[in-house]
């Protein structure tokens, strides 16, 4: 059975593929270039006043952690409804302003007046209207605006080597505020355009891929950490040679704060370097740090699709490059971001940090994964594979 890009998006919309799996285009750059050395965190040359929009989800706590470690002062603006699950103690050092950013009056009440910040780190913008409101209110009182966008803004993932200037996805109703797998990327692209327009060239649009690490609540990478840690025969997709890309949440946070410190504008793909990470390398790194008897069983991609095993949501962090519209999946270059200061941890460092955090969570949370292939279904597919191989 041949599956098209339309089929995958339709599956995503029905919940059988990953939330927000959308095609993307890719940047040209140095394939296999040495990973730049990462400087240790320490005081910044200039302490900044930073306003974080959001701040208590997954990326937000890491942004605040890096900012505080660098000696910056942090204010956050959010609804005050989500309790942070990591770096809990740091919030004693953070000023909290409350309001619903979807309500323009609430934003004006919380952020109005003549108070100034050096930079805004916006983690919670999904509609261009809310960017227009926040950036419009603050543009004369800040020096830099960083918008956390997504690599899903791109219209296609069919070419290796496309850069940040590749066409972005569009949507017929640009005023919709219903976030779906089909609207997510186009709406983020509109948010980027609005930030750039309102800030007059003082905005950075940060396009991460799959964000992974401590605090992840999607389990799209953590599924592999948990599954390999549990041991036994592990269903793995393809031959292992298919490329994938993720971004360690710590690397994303450090780069975003760095952009604010340098007041660097522009648009940046923020993932592991092009042609640096295969599925075999990623899962092998997890296996290396996990004391288990796991055996990876690599299975033919086309056969998996015939079995109804969905890429991305069930075989997480993986999309076969044979899928129309995804021929360039996992090979976006980060040359522009690297030139601006992005550094990335090794696959083993990311695996170790994720495992260390995952093992601290309650058993009930670890039993209830939000992505990946259920154990019974995995056993069925493995049995079918064994019968096929003979």
Shape annotation:
globular
| CATH topology type | Rossmann fold
- Write the CATH architecture name: 3-Layer(aba) Sandwich
What is the structural class? alpha/beta
Molecular structure report:
The protein has 390 residues and is an alpha/beta fold. It has a single domain (5-389), classed as NAD(P)-binding Rossmann-like Domain (Rossmann fold, 3-Layer(aba) Sandwich). It is built from 13 helices and 13 strands. It has helices at 5-14, 59-69, 104-111, 128-138, 184-199, 222-230, 249-262, 279-289, 301-306, 335-339, 347-358, 363-367, 375-389; strands at residues 49-53, 73-78, 95-98, 119-122, 144-148, 203-208, 210-212, 233-237, 246-248, 266-270, 295-299, 311-312, 315-316. The strands form 4 sheets. The chain has a 7-stranded parallel β-sheet with strand order 3-2-1-4-5-6-10, with helices on both faces. Strands 7-9 form a two-stranded parallel ribbon. β1, α2 and β2 form a beta-alpha-beta unit. It is globular and about 75 Å long.
């Amino acid at each position: 059975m041949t599956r098209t890009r339309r089929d995958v998006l339709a599956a995503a919309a029905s919940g059988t593929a990953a939330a927000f799996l959308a095609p993307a285009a890719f940047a040209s750059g140095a394939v296999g270039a040495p990973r730049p050395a990462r400087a240790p965190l320490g005081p910044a040359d200039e302490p900044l006043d930073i306003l974080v929009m959001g701040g208590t989800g997954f990326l937000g706590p890491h942004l605040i952690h890096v900012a505080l470690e660098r000696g910056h002062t942090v204010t956050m603006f959010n609804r005050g409804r989500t309790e942070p699950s990591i770096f809990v103690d740091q919030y004693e050092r953070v000023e909290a302003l409350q309001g619903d950013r979807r309500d323009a009056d609430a934003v004006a009440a919380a952020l109005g007046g003549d108070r100034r910040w050096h930079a805004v780190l916006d983690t919670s913008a999904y509609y261009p209207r809310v960017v227009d409101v926040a950036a419009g209110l603050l543009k004369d009182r800040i020096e830099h605006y960083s918008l956390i966008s997504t690599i899903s803004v791109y219209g296609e993932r069919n070419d290796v080597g496309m850069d940040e200037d590749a066409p972005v996805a569009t949507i017929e109703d640009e005023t919709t505020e219903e976030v779906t797998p089909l609207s997510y990327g186009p709406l983020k692209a509109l948010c980027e355009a609005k930030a750039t327009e309102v800030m007059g060239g003082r905005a950075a649009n940060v396009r991460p891929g799959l964000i992974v690490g401590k605090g992840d609540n999607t389990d799209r990478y953590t599924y592999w950490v948990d599954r390999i840690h549990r041991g036994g025969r592990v269903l793995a997709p393809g031959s292992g040679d298919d490329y994938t890309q993720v971004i360690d949440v710590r690397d994303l946070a450090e780069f975003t704060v760095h952009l604010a410190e340098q007041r660097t504008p522009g648009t940046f793909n923020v993932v592991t370097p092009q042609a640096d990470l295969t599925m075999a390398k990623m899962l092998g790194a997890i296996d290396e740090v996990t004391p288990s008897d796991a055996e990876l069983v690599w299975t033919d991609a086309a056969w998996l699709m015939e079995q109804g095993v969905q890429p991305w949501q069930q075989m997480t962090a993986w999309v076969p490059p044979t899928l129309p519209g995804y021929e360039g999946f996992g090979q976006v270059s980060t040359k522009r971001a690297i030139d601006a200061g992005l550094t990335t941890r090794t696959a083993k460092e990311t695996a170790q940090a994720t495992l260390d955090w995952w093992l601290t969570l309650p058993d009930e949370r670890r039993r209830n994964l939000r992505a990946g292939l259920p154990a019974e279904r995995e056993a069925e597919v493995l049995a079918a594979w064994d019968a096929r191989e003979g």
